[in-house]
Design brief:
By secondary structure, the chain is mainly α. The protein folds into 2 domains: about 150 residues; about 110 residues, Helix Hairpins (Orthogonal Bundle), CATH 1.10.287. The chain is flat.
Length: about 290
């Protein structure tokens, strides 16, 4: 019977690792890329549900009307959640040597423990066992924010996240260029409004840094309404800046959409090749 790694060299156990059957099966359950079927494994489905429930709990806990009088209940629930995530963390650390990305031995374990996803996991676990009673307000907010970071754990369960990161890396120069153009246009717009609107509203446009707040809100099409030009010439320049901002906002969106589509198509073709099939989307050569 073929295992979860058949035909997938990138998912084979790391060299030098004597894989035990249980550890290998557990790795397949925990690692989404190793799961041979569509969707998530049963274990990751359970982790997904726990993450969503605990994130909702952490958000609700920030409401004083809900938390007051129920501090003990919330703490007990957090301890239970922390125990669940501790078991998950230890299981992922134990099976990390099965992942060729980390490698065998203690070095592989160290690579996993210092990876961003493992650090986020560890922070959320520590936050679960911190009692919020008696904490200073800023520490209380920091602990609650750490608990909401559990949502970041969902990124490892979706191939779309890896595709998005791959798309951003592939188009990093185009994205940096669009960012440079946007910042240049923003500074230029703020400078114009400083020139024509500054005398009329020195508190809002009396300097280029002050005018930058208006430029940021205008070019991102947010328009808070707290700062706006009142002179005819200032309104003309503001209208021109707002129209230009629409195109600048759309530029990185188009770049990311094209790159993301290319990444998805590339991985789909790789999966077809790994399965030994043919990509039906490819053009058929003339006989």
């Amino acid at each position: 019977m073929p295992d979860a790694f058949s035909g997938r060299k990138d998912l084979a156990p790391a060299q030098g690792v004597a894989a035990t059957p249980f550890r290998r099966r557990l790795y397949v359950q925990l690692e989404p890329a190793a799961w041979p079927k569509r969707g998530l494994s049963p274990v990751n489905v359970g982790v997904f549900v726990v993450i969503i429930v605990t994130s909702i709990l952490a958000i609700v806990e920030t409401e004083p009307d809900v938390e007051v009088g129920r501090e003990t209940l919330f703490n007990i629930m957090e301890w239970i959640i922390g125990a669940v995530f501790t078991v998950e963390y230890l299981a992922r650390a134990w099976t990390a040597k099965e992942n060729p990305k980390y490698g065998p031995g203690w070095r592989g374990l160290f690579r996993y423990m210092t990876s961003p996803v493992a650090i986020v996991d560890l922070i959320s676990i520590v936050a679960s066992f911190v009692t919020t009673a008696g904490l200073q307000p800023y520490l209380l907010r920091a602990v609650r924010l750490s608990r909401i970071l559990r949502l970041a754990k969902l990124g490892r369960m979706s191939n779309a996240m890896s595709y998005l990161i791959e798309a951003m890396v592939a188009r990093r120069y185009e994205l940096l260029f669009s960012l440079f153009v946007s910042l240049t246009f923003m500074v230029f717009s703020a400078s114009l409004l400083y020139l024509v609107e500054g005398p009329a509203q020195p508190d809002k446009f009396g300097s280029i840094p002050r005018a930058m707040w208006w430029a940021t809100a205008a070019l991102t099409t947010i328009g808070y309404g707290d700062t706006y030009p009142i002179t005819p010439l200032g309104r003309i320049f503001a209208a021109m800046s707002a129209i230009g901002g629409i195109g600048l906002v759309a530029m990185p969106t188009g770049i990311m959409a094209a790159a993301f589509s290319e990444a998805v198509q590339k991985h789909s073709q790789d999966l077809v090749k790994a399965a030994g099939g043919e990509d039906k989307s490819a053009p058929i050569a003339d006989e």
